[in-house]
From TrEMBL:
<keyword id="KW-0732">Signal</keyword>
<protein>
    <submittedName>
        <fullName>Tripartite-type tricarboxylate transporter receptor subunit TctC</fullName>
    </submittedName>
</protein>
<dbReference type="InterPro" id="IPR042100">
    <property type="entry name" value="Bug_dom1"/>
</dbReference>
<keyword id="KW-0675">Receptor</keyword>
<comment type="similarity">
    <text>Belongs to the UPF0065 (bug) family.</text>
</comment>
<feature type="signal peptide">
    <location>
        <begin position="1"/>
        <end position="23"/>
    </location>
</feature>
<dbReference type="Pfam" id="PF03401">
    <property type="entry name" value="TctC"/>
</dbReference>
<dbReference type="InterPro" id="IPR005064">
    <property type="entry name" value="BUG"/>
</dbReference>
């Protein structure tokens, strides 16, 4: 167990299971949710729906600030530096947990300088190929790629999807080149154009291209198929029995935010994710609401970090890779 594991274990003692959330009035001043990614993406969409609902529940303004760059590190740094008074949060995806594994230096300690509030939701990723490629199934893609090793590329939108793609090609023994993109939108644009053979990304980013027929979905990375993508099987259903990976959307606060405030915000988020407007935003991404308790969420962060650490080692990726 490395130092990051010990830091997170130590932080869990700050949230004993006996703690009960106390009433807290958030209406004194606006709440800011920093989204450390570009506007218009899946995280941004969820954040804006969530903020609208929280504003109604809390009777205050909830402001979304997009501070993109460096795999989310720039925006998250701003939250680390914010006053820990319960009015500033970061809404991030799994890349937040991956960053310590793949950045040699960071301006903050992922586990020591932030407190997990809750996982808002989780969603499977989708694997898509250009319609012009002429394949419609996973088996057809495998056969095509194996006929021409090194000819085809898979694209990813950030560190987490890069690792998912790398695991996919390694397990199937495919010789493919990775092409990193700055976001899901440019990735899907290139897949639709046939510039990149395989795209690994969010369902929201791929949805318009799937609907228009420009890309073909060949697999989902979750545990089950979904009605929104009829006929699209999971990787598990197609023989990759242990392949179950989700993009998660989670809320974090500065580390010294008082426990009762963190607990109170978790309960407000739980109410919000089951409101109709937020549920619709989640459903658009085949996302499942979670809103787990603070203590459970912080424990699961340790498990997720360990799994991603193991994955990175298994595919031979190191810091900066």
């Amino acid at each position: 167990m490395n130092k990051l594991h010990y830091r997170l274990l130590a932080s869990l003692w700050l949230f004993p299971f006996a703690v009960t959330a106390q009433a807290y009035d958030f209406s004194g001043k606006p709440i800011t949710i920093v989204v450390p990614y570009n506007p218009g993406g899946g995280t941004d969409t969820i954040a804006r729906r969530l903020s609208n609902q929280l504003a109604k529940q809390l009777n205050t303004n909830v402001i979304i600030e997009n501070k993109a760059g460096a795999d989310g590190i720039i925006g998250t740094s701003a939250v680390v530096r914010a006053k820990p008074d319960g009015h500033t949060y970061a809404l991030v995806v799994n890349t937040h947990i991956v960053n310590p594994l793949f950045h040699k230096t960071m301006p903050y300690d992922t586990f020591k300088d932030l407190t997990g509030v809750t996982m808002i939701a989780k969603s499977p990723l989708v694997l898509v190929v250009p319609k012009s490629l002429g394949v419609t199934t996973l088996d057809e893609l495998i056969k095509l790629v194996k006929k021409a090793p090194g000819k085809y590329a898979y694209g990813s939108s950030e560190n987490f999807t890069k690792r998912v793609g790398a695991r996919f090609v390694k397990e199937l023994e495919l010789d493919m080149i990775n092409v990193p993109y700055s976001g899901g939108a440019p990735l899907m644009t290139d897949v639709a154009a046939g510039t990149t053979t395989l795209g690994v990304g969010s369902i929201l980013a791929a949805h318009a291209y799937i609907s228009s027929g420009k890309v073909v979905p060949i697999a989902l990375t979750g545990d089950k198929a979904d009605d929104s993508l009829p006929g699209v099987k999971t990787l598990k259903d197609q023989g990759m029995n242990h392949f179950s990976m989700y993009v998660t959307y989670s809320l974090f606060a500065p580390a010294k935010t008082p426990k009762p405030i963190v607990q109170a915000m978790q309960q407000e988020v739980r109410k919000a994710v089951f409101a109709q407007s937020v549920k619709q935003a989640l459903q658009a991404q085949v996302a499942e609401p979670v809103a787990n308790p603070v203590e459970q969420f912080n424990k699961e962060l340790l498990s997720e970090y360990a799994q991603l650490d193991q994955l990175a080692k298994s595919i031979g990726m190191k810091a900066g890779g």
